Amino acid sequence: MISEYGVYLVQTTNFQENSIHIKIFDPFGSQIVSKTAESESFEDGFEISSGGEYRIAIENTGDEETVFFLAIGHLPDTSKLSIGIIGFYILIVGMIGIAGLVILAIKNRRKNRLS
Fold first, then answer.
1. 47-66 pLDDT per residue, tens
2. Residues 53 and 33 both lie in one domain
3. Residue 41 sits in which domain range?
4. What pTM did the predictor assign?
5. pLDDT mean values, one per 10 residues, the chain (115 residues)
6. Where are the beta strands (DSSP E) in 16-80?
7. Nearest to 56 by CA among 40, 75, 38, 73
8. Nearest by Cα to 12 from 74, 44, 60
9. What pLDDT sits at residue 101?
């Protein structure tokens, strides 16, 4: 299941205030977001109304040439996030268990050498 909320990120070089304009279009071509970047790294969200391809358009009205780094996508569903967190905890517990077994094996080896 895909979240009903999308997010986009725009990073720029040579940032000039009020010169970077961002527009997001839905799959039907309707503009759903129109913002002006407030800093070199600007992130904001938008509502996903239907499935399909969403587009991002960037306009630079500043005097200098600017390089853009863009990302657009949906936020993962909260159930997928919790599965990822549970997997991380299982991995950590497993690593602690392996470390404990290694320590136990080293102690047993030392006891066997002393006897």
1. 888 888 899 999 988 888 88
2. yes
3. 5-75
4. 0.59
5. 78 82 92 89 87 89 84 73 75 91 89 75
6. 20-25, 31-36, 41-47, 55-60, 68-74
7. 73
8. 60
9. 92
- Residue 82 phi, psi (nearest 5): -70, -35
* C-beta of residue 27 within 8 angstroms of C-beta of residue 53: yes
70-109 per-residue burial string, b: 16 or more CB within 10 A, e: under 16? eeeeeeeeeeeeeeeeeeeeeeeeeeeeeeeeeeeeeeee
Whether residue 69 is found in the same domain as residue 84: no
Total number of domains in the chain = 2
60, with CB counted inside 10 A (0-12, 13-18, 19+), is middle
Same domain (yes/no): 9, 65: yes
Pair 48, 17 in one domain: yes
